[in-house]
Amino acid sequence: MNSRSFSLDFDPAPLLACIDSVQASRIVRAAVDLGVFFEFAKKPGTAEEVAAALGVSLRGTRALLDSLTALQLLGKEKGVYSLLPIAEALLVPGSPDYLGDLVHGSVLDQEWDHIVEAVRKGGLATAAEPGERQKRAEEFFPQLIRFLHVANRRPAIAAAKALGAGTTHRGMRVLDIACGSGVWSLAVAYADRDARITAVDFPGVLEHTRRYGERHGLADQYEYLPGDIQEVDFPENRFDLAILGHILHGEGEGKSRKLLRRLAKALRRGGRIAILEFLPNRERTGPPEAVLFGMRMFLNTEEGGVYSAEEYAEWLAYVGFTKTELVDIGYHSPLLIASRAEE
Questions:
Q1: Do 124 and 43 share a domain, yes or no?
Q2: Residues 6+ apart with CB under 8 A from 282
C-alpha cells in the first residue's frame, strides 16, 4: 500500500461502521445512567429544563439530546424533546420490556474482554459439572429474557404465519425446546387459540415462561416440562411441531444431532420441526451477523458454533426428516422447516 497516495483502493465503511456503533452505544449508555429517559417519561422538555432537572451542564445536555434524536430515540419539535415509542417502551425504568439495564452489556458480553486469551488457548468455556449447566442457564438467562423477548417478537409472528398457525394448521401440539420466554411458541398460540404448547426448559427459566404466558393472556394453552433438553424424556409420537429457536448454536454439532434424533421420535409422522438460527454460508465468509455470532459461541460455550443451512439439512435428513425448506422471515435468522418422514 502506498501511504503517500491520496486515493483509496478500498472502502473504509465496514470499519467506520464498527467505530460508529461503539459511539452510539456509549451515547445510549450515558443517557440511561443520567436518567434522561426517566425524566422524559414525566413530560417533554427543553434542553434547559432537562439540564436543570438532572443537575448537569446545558451544553452537554444539548449534545446528548440531539444525539438521541439522531438515533431516533427522542423526538424534537421547536426545541422541545420527547420520548419516541421505542424509548418509552424499552428505556423507561418500570416498563415490562425495559432494556436499559443491558446497555452496559450482558453477562455473555464479559468474555469479549478476554478474546486474545481465548484465541491463544482455544477457548475459555470449561466443561460443565453435573448440575452446572442448569446453574449457568438460570443465572444468566433472567438478564437476557427481556432483550430476547423484544428482539424476537416480530420475527416470531412472521414465523408463526409461515408455519400456517391458525390457518392451514389448527390445533397443533407444539414442543418448544429450551423455550426461554416462550416467544416463538407464544406467537403460534396467539395465532391459534386451539394450539397446545409443551414448554421445555430448566425450572428457574420456566418461571419466566409462565409469567410471559400470563402477560399475553395465553397461559391456558401451556403445559411445562422442566429439565435439561439433553436429558428430559419427550413423549413419543405426540407433537405436530417442534420449535428450536436459537438453541442448536449453543449445543454444538454432536449434541445437536442427538437432540434432532430424539425430536424426530417425539413428532408424529408428518410432523414438522422449525429451526431458527444464524446461518453462515458453508465457507463461513458471511453473512457478517452469522459469522460473528460464531465467535460469540467460541467465547461463551464449550462446543457451540454456527452452521450452514446445508449442514442442518444433512443432519435432519440423517435422522429421518424430509422436505427441508428455508423461509425468509425478514430477520437475521431464517426459518428452516423440515418434516418427519411419513413412513
A1: no
A2: 308, 310, 311
Residues 25 and 161 in one domain: no
Residues 96-151 have pLDDT tens digits of 889 888 877 655 567 788 889 989 888 876 655 656 666 766 666 777 888 889 98
Q: 96-100: long-range contacts at Cβ-Cβ below 8 A with a sequence spacing of 24 or more?
A: 96/146, 96/215, 97/146, 97/149, 97/150, 98/146, 99/146, 99/147, 99/150, 100/32, 100/37
What SS3 state is found at 177? strand
**Three-class secondary structure of residue 339 per DSSP:** strand
The rounded distance, in Å, linking the Cα atoms of 113 and 120 is 14
Provide the grid cell at 54.
438532572
C-alpha dihedral sign at 223, 228, 229, 235: negative
Kindly state the percentage of the chain with pLDDT values over 70.
89
Residue ranges making up the domain that contains 234: 112-340
Q: What pTM did the predictor assign?
A: 0.87
The answer to the question of residue 208 being in a domain is yes
Are 302 and 230 in contact by the 8 Å Cβ rule? The answer is no
- For residue 173, the cross-strand partners are 196
- DSSP strand E in 61-181: where? 74-77, 80-83, 173-177
Do the domain assignments include residue 28?
yes
Shared domain for 91 and 117, answered yes or no, is: no
Q: Cβ distance 222 to 181 under 8 Å?
A: no
CB atoms within 10 A of CB 109: 13
- What per-residue confidence (pLDDT) applies to 244? 99
Residue 180: give its domain's CATH number: 3.40.50.150
